[in-house]
């Protein structure tokens, strides 16, 4: 069993002054441990084969986002050429769709809500990963070169 933690890391790996990773790279790093999750996807702006279809579905959801399984999210991530912005929140499925409150969908309450992991792509400049599992933190630090741990009081309302 992994140690329960609450951390935010920002990943800034660059190549030729451009972000050298995307959502698919973070998901690939965490593969195996994310299989049984449902993902709430919102605020997505991206380019690639399915980008218009998915971004249009999110816009039609009018602020409610869309839900994808881990397999669907990995498939989507692999079809994206570049993620410009996006928020991806993971929740345990436990045999059915998650029963959540608005607080569960708010990363400001990550330290106390039911979200298992959060990923935010910020303006194609860096990726934030909200973590509650020590093994996820080790995996990210093992794969990426520029992983930073900012002050948590900048992220959470209760800190």
Topology:
Layout: E1 4-11, E2 14-15, E3 18-19, H1 23-29, E4 37-48, H2 51-60, E5 66-69, H3 70-79, E6 80-92, E7 117-122, E8 126-133, H4 134-143, E9 147-148
Antiparallel strand pairs: 1-8, 1-9, 2-3, 4-5, 4-6, 6-7, 7-8
Describe the structure concisely for a colleague.
This protein is of the alpha+beta class and 159 residues long. The protein has helices at 23-29, 51-60, 70-79, 134-143, and strands at residues 4-11, 14-15, 18-19, 37-48, 66-69, 80-92, 117-122, 126-133, 147-148.
Describe this protein with a few key phrases.
159 residues; alpha+beta; 7-stranded antiparallel sheet; two-stranded antiparallel sheet; globular
Kindly describe this structure.
There is one protein chain. The protein has 159 residues and is an alpha+beta fold. It has one domain (4-154). Helix content is 23%, strand content 36%. The chain is built from four helices and nine strands. A seven-stranded antiparallel β-sheet has the order 5-4-6-7-8-1-9. The longest helix has 10 residues, at 51-60. The protein is globular, with a radius of gyration of 15 Å.
